[in-house]
TrEMBL record:
Flagellar hook protein FlgE/F/G-like D1 domain mapped to chain residues: 114-173
A Gene Ontology BP annotation from the UniProt entry: bacterial-type flagellum-dependent swarming motility
Keyword Cell wall biogenesis/degradation: no
PANTHER family on file: FLAGELLAR BASAL-BODY ROD PROTEIN FLGG, FLAGELLAR PROTEIN
Gene name linked to the record: flhO
Pfam families per record: Flg_bb_rod, Flg_bbr_C, LlgE_F_G_D1
Protein name per UniProt: Flagellar hook-basal body complex protein FlhO
Flagellar basal body rod protein N-terminal domain ranges (all copies): 5-35
Family: Belongs to the flagella basal body rod proteins family.
Annotated Flagellar basal-body/hook protein C-terminal domain residues: 219-262
PROSITE patterns, sorted: FLAGELLA_BB_ROD
Length: 269
């Protein structure tokens, strides 16, 4: 009976984590460049049930003796758990914003199935991070920064000084300035699933120069929308809620049965 309690409880915890991931996706449905999270649900290792306690009689000349015996009954699954949360890196829709500092990565084809191209930025600790959120602006010192205030880096890993304004960004990411042309830095990750999601639309991991056979452009005055499917996420949330309730009812039944076992069946007459 206790095993059933643990199985139902693990189901409730799994659906709770599923609900949290879906809620976060819906909350960021309007965040530019946001990549939705998907939960990978796995079952705990299956156990083999074996019946023990029986005996086999071995005859001998002196009357025989008993040896313990066992019999396999089959497998038993002990519940499920969320193994990991994986971002989904599919390209989001490109929507025009009309702002000259907004830039969208229009990724059409890359060499690797799970490959992705990112902007390079510098976080508050001075470390290089990657993002698909091209909602940029110009700070008081004339540097190109993200809407969280992180410096956008050029192809050489330096901060981008815009002289206070941006008129043109070419499809290759070139920005004409008084000091010469500056190219917005982009990097390529062959397997985007190896990246670590840090929050604030930032990813941490190893990247390399964009391959020459990658087909992509940078589109000025536009933003890549999140790839969250709001309708599907709402449906999945309802399913997770129903599954949570089902496990909750099972847990309640087990709790009532245990209560009867303690207060009624075990009562001395």
């Amino acid at each position: 009976m206790l095993r059933g309690l643990y199985t139902a409880a693990s189901g409730m915890l799994t659906q709770q984590r599923q609900q949290e991931a879906l809620s976060n996706n819906i909350a960021n449905a309007n965040t530019p460049g946001y990549k939705s999270d998907q939960t990978a649900i796995r079952a705990f290792p299956e156990l083999l049930i074996e019946q023990m306690g029986g005996t086999n009689r071995i005859p001998t000349t002196q009357g025989g003796f008993n040896i313990p015996s066992s019999r396999q009954l089959g497998g038993l699954n002990t519940g499920v758990y969320v193994q990991e949360t994986i971002p989904h890196y599919a390209q989001g829709d490109i929507v025009e914003s009309g702002l000259p500092t907004d830039v969208a990565i229009n990724q059409r084809e890359v060499p690797d199935e799970n490959g992705a191209i990112f902007f390079t930025v510098q976080n508050n600790d001075g470390d290089v991070r990657y993002t698909r959120n091209g909602n940029f602006t110009i700070d008081a010192d004339g540097y190109l920064v993200t809407n969280q205030g992180y410096y956008v880096l050029d192809e050489n890993g330096n901060n981008i000084q815009t002289d206070g304004t941006i008129d043109i960004i070419s499809p290759e990411g070139v920005i004409p300035t008084a000091g010469g042309d500056i190219t917005i830095g982009t990097q390529y990750v062959a397997d985007a699933n190896t990246l670590i999601k840090e929050g604030n639309d930032l990813f941490q991991g190893d990247a390399e120069a964009v391959p020459g056979d990658a087909d992509y452009t940078l589109q000025q005055g536009a933003l890549e929308q999140s790839n969250v499917n709001t309708a599907q996420s709402m449906t999945d949330m309802m399913n997770a809620y129903r599954l949570f309730e089902s496990n909750q009812r099972v847990l309640r039944v087990y709790d009532e049965s245990l209560g009867k076992a303690v207060t009624e069946i075990g009562r001395l007459s």
